[in-house]
Amino acid sequence: MLKIAYHPCYGHPVEAGHRFPMDKYPLLIEQLLYEGTITEDNIFSPDPVDEKYVLSTHTKEYWEKLKNQTISYREARKIGLPMSDALVKRELIITQGTIECTEFAFQNGVAMNIAGGTHHAYTDHGEGFCLLNDFAVAANYLIQEKGLERILIIDLDVHQGNGTAEIFQDNPKVFTFSMHGKNNYPMHKEKSDLDIPLEDQTTDSTYLSILKKYIDVLFNEIEPQFVFFLSGVDILSSDKLGKLGMSIQGCKERDEIVLKYCHDHNVPVAISMGGGYSPQLHIIIEAHANTFRIANNIYF
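That's the Histone deacetylase sequence above. Prediction below.
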């Protein structure tokens, strides 16, 4: 059975007019339930992650600032969200959801977090709507608790996974792959193990041919024991914060390529949704929903 991490706090409200669409999370669950892609049995609700796992990835000083709400105004502006205890708790719950997804992925091949993909969070600070790096914390969990030595992070959000790249820059057990807009945020890119910068308005055919080429190389050379897949839908041509030219169908085919590789190579995969900022919310929901439909079709 496909297991999906979701908690009501995922839809934590932000200031009126804020550009981060947190309301997409409950709407996505409602759509998947309504159409019958999932039932309530597919959903699990995580608790906050134990801080010992936070500290396996993030510095004690940064974590104390988050926990005690002593983040400076400048640091909060870099994160881009109004800080609160509720927001920090939300991030802890999302991170635990991704950790639990790894456990379900070992059982079922795949598991999904409705939120997550907070790849702009660095070791010692947050950026770009990201406080804690859920993939990094979960990858370190697998290294420490499961003894894994070959983890592959496939980051296909339109923005480079700069925080993830920084966290694992000296860790040979985690290979970071980021395929992103060349001229998009963050303007200063970190160095992933493999970065594929894409030109503005990159279309479906070009994007998918590049992805097929590199994913084949990655699976054959790394032979990953576990995959994290960030399936951001901000690659769509309609996205307000993206600059690529992808269609909903192209985005769907992207997910099929990644998940079929994981399935055919018998590598468990945990998926987080990442970004999506199209002006029309129904486009975001449809593109994200396709990822769940594809996972169901391939694995179940």
